Amino acid sequence: MKVTETLNEKQTVAAALEFAAKLKAGDIVRLHGEIGVGKTVFVRGVAAYFGCDEDVCSPTFAIMNIYGDNPPIYHFDLYRFENEDELYDAGLDEFLDGSGISLVEWPELLKNYPAKRFIDITIEKDSLKGENFRRITENLTGRSELKK
User: Fold this and answer.
1) Quick one: how far is CA 52 from the chain centroid?
2) Residue 25 in contact with residue 144, Cβ under 8 Å?
3) DSSP states of 65-125 as a string?
4) pLDDT at residue 146 is higher than 50
5) Sheet strand arrangement including 73-77
6) Which of 30, 53, 102, 142 is an S-S bond match for 107, by CB 3.0 to 4.6 Å?
7) 2-142: what CATH class?
8) 40: Cα separation from own chain's centroid
9) pTM value?
């Protein structure tokens, strides 16, 4: 487990850039945190690491955005799904098992997804430390190791 503390968006993006260096195609990153905590800001940093200069925005209504292609970054928002069956009906598992890196906001419906591993990122606020303070916790769940 790794914990990083940031004081602004720029530092959150920098933390995501550092984290992204560990990722490889096929990885599934579950992003946990309340609305407005900075999950999409974190995705912006990951996408930037892989050379994406597109505007990264929350896929709340689109369900999935794809950024770049080397590897592609699949940015999911599962907030609007009510159950696991809807994920499969939408064909999202084809992307989760694909050749890209998947970053999933509101990933609670993936708890039974048969991945070899997940990387969990939890972003939390602490108003006692300031309005823009964020605690970013990285935790690997599963059998594999992050690339060195």
Assistant:
1) 15
2) no
3) EEE-SSS-EEEEE-TT--SHHHHHHTTHHHHHTSSSEEEEESGGGGTT---SEEEEEEEEE
4) no
5) 2-6, 134-142, 117-125, 28-32, 101-105, 73-77, 64-67
6) 30
7) alpha beta
8) 8
9) 0.88
